[in-house]
Amino acid sequence: MDRNRYKIDTILAHLSENGGIKDPFGSSHMPIYQTATFDLKKQGDNPYDYTRSGNPTRESLENLLSKVCSGVGAVLTHTGLGSIALLFESFLRVNDHILVDKDTYGGTFRLLKYYRDRMNITLHFVDFLDLEKVENKLKSNPISIVLIESPTNPGLKILDLQQVGLLTKKYKTIFAVDNSLATFVSQRPLELGADISLFSTTKYVSGHGAVIGGAIVSNNKNLLKEIKYTANAQGRSQNPMDVHTISLGIPTLPIRLKAHQDSALKLATWLENHPRVKRVVYPGLKSHPQYETAKKQMSYFNGVLTVDFESEELALRVVEETILFSEKCSFGTADSRIESPGKISHASFTSDELREIGINPETLRISVGLEDIDDLIDDLKGIIGE
C-alpha cells in the first residue's frame, strides 16, 4: 500500500500485506517462522539462512515499521533499551562525546553511565528547551550523537524536533529520537529532521504488557547499513515469537492511542483543579508550557501524566490505596499504572538529579489505561476526596 495514498490507520489494519513478505498460503496474519535455520536449496534469490541474520516474521514487521516511520529500513531488538544500546554500539567509539537532554529515561541514563565508564565517553546533559545552549554544546564539542526523547519521561517536556534537527544537520551530528511515549502514530521524528527513530515496542505499540521489545528505524541508508551489521554481529535481533506477539497489537494502536488520550485529558483536567494537587503536567493541557509545540508535531497526546500531590504522604497513599492503578513500571497498557519515578523507572538517578528534572518525593507518574474514566476518577476520589 502506498504510504502517500493511505492513512496510517489503514496501513496498520492491513499489517501483513504491508510487511512485504509473501506467505505461500495467504494467511491473514503473518505466520511465525519459529526456526533457527532455513534450507538454502529450497529457496530462490536472497535466501534466508539463519534466524539471527534474517527471518520472514521479523522482516515483515521491520518492513511495516520502516514504512509508517518514513524510513528506509528497520531493526527489531529484544528490548526497548536494546535499541538504544544498538544505537550506541553502532556509532559510539572510545573517547566520543554524546549530547542528551537532562530529562531522560532512567534506563538510558544508566546505559550512558555504563558506556562512559567503559569507553571514556563524555556525556553532555543540557535542557533542550534552550536551543542556544544546545548549539553552544554542538559548537564547542565534537558531538557524535544527539539523543533526546519527546515527550520526555517523566517530565513530559515537548522538545521541538524540527529545530533540533536543523542544528544537528548544521553540525553534521547523528540525531536520534526516542519515540516511545508518542509512538509513530502520533509523531514521526524522521519527517521532522531526525536521522534515527527508536522506540520500545513493549509499551503502546504492543499494548498488552505481555512482551518486551524495541525497534530502531533510519532514513539514511549508510546509517542503516551500520545498524544492521551491528545487530547481526552482536546477535541483537528479536526472536520470531516475540515479534508475532508484538504485531498482534499494532492494528489497534490508533484507536487505543485515542482512547488513552481522551481518558488522560479528562483525568488531568480533574486533577489540575483539585485542591490537594500542586501540579499536573500533561501535553494535552493548555497550561502545558509547550502545548503549541505538542499540537504542531503530535497527533495524539498519549496517556501519561506527571502529578505533584500536596505532600509525599498523600502521594504514598495514592500509590498504596488505589484499586485500579497498579504499582507497576512501564506504560501504554490496557491497565492503568502508577509509580514514584525515583523508586522505579528513575531509580538510577540521585535525589539531586531527580530534583533537577522536576521529580520530587510527592511526584507520581500515571499511565492511564483503557478502563472507564469515571471509575478511575472515583478510585482517586476515595483517597484525595472530591
UniProtKB/TrEMBL annotation:
InterPro entries referenced in this protein's UniProt entry, alphabetically: Cys/Met-Metab_PyrdxlP-dep_enz, Cys_met_metab_PP, PyrdxlP-dep_Trfase, PyrdxlP-dep_Trfase_major, PyrdxlP-dep_Trfase_small
Listed cofactors: pyridoxal 5'-phosphate
Source organism per UniProt: Thiospirochaeta perfilievii
Protein name per its UniProtKB record: PLP-dependent transferase
GO terms of molecular function: carbon-sulfur lyase activity; pyridoxal phosphate binding; transferase activity
Superkingdom field: Bacteria
A UniProt-annotated Pfam family: Cys_Met_Meta_PP
Protein keywords: Pyridoxal phosphate, Transferase
Family: Belongs to the trans-sulfuration enzymes family.
Residues bearing PTM N6-(pyridoxal phosphate)lysine: K203
This protein's GO CC annotations: cytoplasm
UniProt keyword annotation of Transferase present: yes
GO biological process terms, semicolon-separated: transsulfuration
